[in-house]
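2024-03-11 09:14:02 INFO worker-7 job=invfold-0412 stage=load source=structure_tokens
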């Protein structure tokens, strides 16, 4: 398994399951205990690692969302809970989700070792949301830390992808309508907000995906040949555990 094969296999799974905890029942229940609705806990928890910043900072770090939706949620959330506290609570909820779902996954300790190796090789320059998420305290147990690593590595590629979109001349709203057109309303966009999607846009998206691969490849390349297949096999097992 070469570097590109590893990325092609691992990154889509991480992208899918790294967000599995955000709207899990236990996570939403914890948000309610803190006085936040599910979207509020998602935005305050995911963005709170950045600190008590203005909403425009969180908008820039997240991408994809309608800024007006983000501003309303961030402003109302800050009146309820300190952002850093929300960020810590979110990562605790992440670990708890791992404990509830991943405890029976085989070879999870080895997966955590490999994931930490990839994380240590990540270059966080210009990726503040990833760096801030990674800086939160690590769970001491394998299931909890495995889920955290999935979320953090998802944030790594997601942040790198926003950078790649800028580099090829695409805004994140357009990119979102290409990749997830059925989710536009969830992200605060109305039908009249939809941009023109033509062949040129699709070509730029393909260019951005390739550039994203180049940005994250050095981190994943640190895994030895012997580590790669077990890493991917455990990712598949984690996906099964998190989606069934």
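2024-03-11 09:14:09 INFO worker-7 stage=emit residues=244
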């Amino acid at each position: 398994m070469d570097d590109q094969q590893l990325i092609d296999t691992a990154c889509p799974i991480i992208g899918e399951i790294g967000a599995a905890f955000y709207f899990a029942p236990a996570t939403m229940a914890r948000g309610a205990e803190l006085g936040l609705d599910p979207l509020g806990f998602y935005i305050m928890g995911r963005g709170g690692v950045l600190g008590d910043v203005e909403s425009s900072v969180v908008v820039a770090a997240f991408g994809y969302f309608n800024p007006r939706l983000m501003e309303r949620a961030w402003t109302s959330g800050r009146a309820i809970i300190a952002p850093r506290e929300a960020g810590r609570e979110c990562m605790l909820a992440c670990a708890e989700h791992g404990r509830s779902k991943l405890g029976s996954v085989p070879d999870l300790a080895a997966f955590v070792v490999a994931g930490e190796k990839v994380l240590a090789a990540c270059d966080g320059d210009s990726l503040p949301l990833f760096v801030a998420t990674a800086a939160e305290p690590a769970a001491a147990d394998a299931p909890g830390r495995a889920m955290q690593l999935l979320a953090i590595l998802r944030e790594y590629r997601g942040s790198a992808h926003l950078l790649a979109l800028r580099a090829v001349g695409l805004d994140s709203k357009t990119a979102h309508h290409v990749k997830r057109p059925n989710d536009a309303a969830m992200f605060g966009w109305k039908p009249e907000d939809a941009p023109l999607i033509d062949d040129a846009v699709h070509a730029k998206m393909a260019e951005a995906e390739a550039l994203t691969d180049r940005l994250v490849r050095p981190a994943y390349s640190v895994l030895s040949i012997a580590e790669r297949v077990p890493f991917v096999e455990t990712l598949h097992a984690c996906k099964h555990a998190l989606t069934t």
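2024-03-11 09:14:09 INFO worker-7 stage=report msg="The CA atoms of residues 45 and 89 lie 7 Å apart."
2024-03-11 09:14:10 INFO worker-7 job finished
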